[in-house]
Design brief:
The protein is α+β, with helices and mostly antiparallel strands and 180 residues long. The chain has five helices and seven strands, in the order βαααβββαβαββ. It has helices at 8-13, 15-27, 40-55, 104-118, 133-140; strands spanning 2-6, 59-66, 69-77, 87-95, 123-129, 144-154, 160-169.
């Protein structure tokens, strides 16, 4: 399976595949900001908006796939404030239900962490549904849990669920990180 960084053009070319992945992820029960049923048009619109963020340097997106099929993705979101350029938020780590259990989530996570460190990012943070499979992945990858916020977000079925907040320190540099 190949993992590649998507620039604006590559992201725009894969927006349909990424939309299909987003729909599958939501319909599989992952709490990633959307309610079920998520229609493909809404998923296409959401990914199309991400292309502008990628072009502006506020978002780095990686996709993993086999052949013409995108089976996973992960992104790093960069703050726009001068005092926070050393950190990034890990967002939208998704693995298609057909590809789960093969280490793809860990590979995508490692790819984002290594790219962030190479760019001078020294701190990553994220939030994820408490007690989810994703939370297990982050803990096993050395992320530190800060705590949980009750009733933070609705799961795809609409039920309010807690979220856990995590961080991970990278490298040993100071606050000099630059967007990838």
């Amino acid at each position: 399976m190949i993992v590649r960084r998507l620039d604006r053009a590559a992201l725009a070319a894969r927006v349909g595949e990424l939309a299909d992945l987003l729909v599958d992820t939501v319909h599989g029960g992952a709490s990633i900001g959307f309610l079920a049923p998520l229609d493909r048009a809404a998923a296409l619109a959401w990914w199309t908006e991400r292309a502008a963020e990628a072009a502006g340097g506020r978002l780095a997106v990686w996709a993993a796939g086999e052949g013409d099929r995108t089976l996973g993705t992960v992104s790093l979101a960069f703050p726009d404030k001068p005092n926070s350029r050393h950190r990034a938020e890990l967002v939208k780590l998704m693995v298609h239900r057909d590809a789960r259990g093969r280490g793809l989530g860990r590979r995508l996570l490692t790819t984002a962490e290594e790219a962030a460190a190479a760019a001078g990012i020294t701190l990553l943070h994220l939030d994820t549904e408490t007690d989810s499979l994703a939370e297990h992945l982050y803990r096993s990858a050395g992320w530190t849990r800060v705590g949980a916020i009750p009733d933070y977000a609705a799961a795809p079925d609409g039920a309010l669920r807690p979220t856990s907040v995590y961080y991970k320190r990278l490298g040993s540099g100071g606050p000099t990180g630059a967007p990838l």
